[in-house]
Design a protein that fits this description.
By secondary structure, the chain is α+β, with helices and mostly antiparallel strands. The chain contains 13 helices and 23 strands. The chain binds adenosine-5'-triphosphate. Adenosine-5'-triphosphate binds next to strand 10, strand 13, strand 16 and helix 9.
Length: about 450
């Protein structure tokens, strides 16, 4: 087997390399490609769906399963339209939009720095802009056969709406007392004026949200706890200080009901951008839904007998943005000893789409190697590959972030041992085939990333 050695120098990542890897290996590509694509919509291929499912499972494990005080929900995407009136989305969920009279392109008024020159104006490169108008980002649809206004509904712009409308029932059925949380992962839709930066700003995307209900006097403490907990989550995905930061909102940015907020920002190739928002929302949500539904959403403290409307600390993270951050953080092109280059995706094992690849050294060894792969598939997503020389097969796995390659060679027949090669250090170890599953389990299950540092 090839001995490999690499240098650790990591060049800055370019977006075009990430987009190209994603298309080439089928992680993510444009939706409706054969018709020319549809702006702001993306399809996740075999590796992408594994990556995103692993990320969602890891979030669910941390936020719901490992705790006694958070329960889960999977609510309808279309909910009662009053939900969005109560939350203020129908009236206020808008971005300022301007049009260029010359080239007919449309921009967000607060993102004009990125608009570039106008291709349709001779003598000046500036756009001929209309005054800003407010544009509602909610995607509208019709329910039922009639098209009158009563049948208008909205695709949710964030997943949390139903958490508030279901609060009363969930508290009862889950037999939870405040403080406790409700979590949900699901699709959200926003008619973004300018979808861009690959999947970063899409029109259909997935959010993982937690609404944590507590006494209004306790939000400060819960806000800090959840902020720290969420930072820990991202650190465990491998995001070091150099790529992840906590940015507190200043007064002007805060919604009128919001008492405190921070963004967790990732350093993408196109700059520092939000991947998660953490907000102290006070009692706004349950008060508004109580008012619009006419239902009492307050609770009683059993000890003090105080009756109060619970306040909310929210954590809201985009799964697509975090998946993109994982790809950007993991991606590296390395020059190996001897001048050969490799592309490697250093993903934390917990999110890696393929956990191990089984590679027979020769096609003649296919049968025992396939048996080994079938055995490992009972536990993990395992890939079997017998085509091409072993070095090329390693490269194919490095590029998609597979932490371990297991090679069955001619000696394996007699000594019943396999060679396991590790992705990052490219070190190799000889292990009895009978111990392989246990060996992998020790290194894969629950295995998070070590924050890597990029220059
Ligand atoms: P931005 O300012 O970037 O538009 P936001 O502040 O409106 O984001 P939130 O409403 O706080 O975002 O949503 C929570 C999370 O949902 C964001 O941190 C992000 O990860 C994700 N998200 C929001 N809008 C989009 C989008 N258009 N495409 C992909 N993910 C998104």
């Amino acid at each position: 087997m090839d001995a490999e050695a690499g240098s650790d120098a990591r060049a800055p990542v370019r977006m075009e390399d990430i987009v190209s890897l994603c298309a080439r290996r089928g992680f993510v590509f444009q939706s409706g490609e054969i018709y020319g694509g549809i702006n702001g919509f993306w399809d996740y291929g075999p590796l992408g769906v594994e990556l995103k499912n692993n990320l969602k499972a890891f979030w669910w494990q941390r936020v719901v399963r490992e705790r006694g005080d958070v329960v889960g929900l999977d609510s309808a995407i279309i909910t009662h339209p009053r939900t969005w009136e109560a939350s203020g989305h129908v009236e206020h969920f808008t971005d300022p939009m301007v049009d260029c009279r010359a080239c007919k392109r449309r921009f967000r008024a607060d993102q004009l720095a990125d608009a570039g020159p106008c291709p349709a104006r001779e003598g000046t490169s500036e756009h001929d802009l209309t005054p800003p108008r407010q544009f509602n980002l909610m995607l509208r649809t019709q329910i039922g056969a009639s098209e009158d206004a009563s049948a208008t509904a909205w695709l949710r712009a964030e997943t949390c709406g139903s958490i508030f409308t279901d609060f009363r029932r969930l508290r009862e059925v889950a037999r939870q007392k405040v403080p406790f949380g409700i979590a949900q992962i699901g699709k959200a839709f926003r008619n973004e004026i300018n979808p861009r930066n690959f999947t970063f700003r899409s029109r259909e995307f997935e959010q993982a949200e937690l609404e944590f209900f507590c006494h209004p006097d306790a939000t400060g403490e819960w806000f800090e706890r959840w902020r720290d907990e969420r930072v820990r989550f991202h650190r465990d995905l491998g995001f070091g200080d150099d790529v992840l930061r906590v940015r507190p909102h200043d007064e002007k940015e805060l919604a009128h009901y919001c008492r405190n907020a921070v963004d967790l920002e990732f350093r993408f190739p196109f700059g520092w951008q939000e991947i998660e928002g953490i907000h102290d929302r006070g009692t706004w949500d349950l008060e508004r839904h109580g008012e619009y539904s006419g239902k009492d959403l307050s609770v009683t403290d059993e000890e003090t007998k105080e009756r109060f409307v619970p306040a909310v600390v929210e954590t809201s993270v985009g799964m697509d943005r975090t998946a993109l951050a994982l790809l950007c953080n993991g991606y590296a092109e390395e020059t190996l000893e001897g001048g050969e280059t490799r592309t490697v995706l250093r993903l934390a094992p917990v999110v890696a789409p393929i956990k191990a690849a089984v590679l027979p050294l020769s096609k003649k060894l296919a049968e025992p190697a396939q048996r080994l792969a079938a055995e490992l598939r009972r536990h993990w997503n395992v890939f079997y590959d017998e085509s091409g020389n072993i070095g090329r097969r390693y490269r194919r796995q490095d590029e998609v972030g597979t932490p371990f390659c297991v090679t069955w060679d001619f000696d394996s027949e007699s000594d019943q041992q396999v060679t396991v090669r590790e992705r990052d250090g490219m070190t190799q170890e000889r292990i009895p085939a009978s111990r392989l599953a246990e060996w992998l389990r020790e290194r894969l299950d629950g295995s998070t990333g070590h924050s890597t540092t990029r220059d």
